[in-house]
């Protein structure tokens, strides 16, 4: 019996180690999957007609993004504590796009029909927006020369 006890204790320690490693792997894989699922970059934004802001959104995440439910656009820079609460989802008339989703690796053009710079307002002007996808904010700054 004395020879079996160390073998059993080693087996129990191995089982505990494998169980802890499996629990850590499960937690970390879920954590990283969430971090990389819905991620965007904004490679370009401009004010082509002097009033509406056009932005390209590139999905660099691993899952498709539903434009109508996953993206919110706020005017002003929320990271700087801007108190403006003007925001739009892409099913409103103030923000438009021709697509309903962006596949992983895909692009979509978003137009923000705002008063960033229209005739009669303080033009030229620089406007800031936060494009929020899955709780992550991507700030953009656009120079609008005016109409």
The number of distinct structural domains comes to 2
- Tell me what the CATH architecture of the largest domain is: Sandwich
Beta fraction of the residues? 35-45%
Chain oligomer state: single chain
Radius of gyration over C-alpha positions, nearest whole angstrom: 24 Å
Poorly predicted segments: none
Give the strand order of the largest sheet, numbering strands 1, 2, ... along the chain.
1-2-8-6
Highest-level CATH class of the largest domain: Mainly Beta
Largest sheet: 4 strands, antiparallel
Overview of the structural elements:
The chain is of the alpha+beta class. It folds into 2 domains: 1-37; 38-144, Sandwich (Immunoglobulin-like). Helix content is 26%, strand content 36%. The chain has helices spanning 4-37, 67-70; strands at 40-46, 53-59, 65-66, 71-75, 87-89, 95-97, 101-102, 107-112, 125-133, 136-144. It has a 4-stranded antiparallel sheet, with no helix packed on it. A 4-stranded antiparallel sheet has the order 5-4-9-10. A hairpin with a 2-residue loop joins strand 9 and strand 10 (136-144). The chain is rod-shaped and about 90 Å long.
């Amino acid at each position: 019996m004395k020879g079996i006890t160390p073998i059993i204790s080693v087996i129990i320690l191995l089982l505990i180690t494998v169980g802890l490693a499996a629990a850590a792997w499960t937690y970390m894989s879920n954590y990283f999957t969430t971090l990389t699922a819905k991620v965007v970059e904004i490679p370009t934004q401009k004010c082509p007609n002097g009033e509406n802001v056009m932005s390209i959104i590139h999905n660099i995440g691993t899952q498709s993004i539903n434009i109508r439910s996953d993206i919110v656009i706020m005017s002003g820079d929320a990271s700087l504590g801007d108190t403006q609460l003007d925001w739009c989802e892409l099913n409103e008339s103030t923000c438009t796009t021709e697509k309903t989703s962006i596949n992983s690796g895909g692009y979509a053009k978003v137009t923000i029909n705002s008063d960033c710079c229209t005739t009669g307002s303080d033009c030229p002007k620089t406007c800031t927006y936060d494009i929020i996808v899955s709780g992550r904010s991507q700030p953009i700054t656009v120079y609008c020369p005016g109409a």
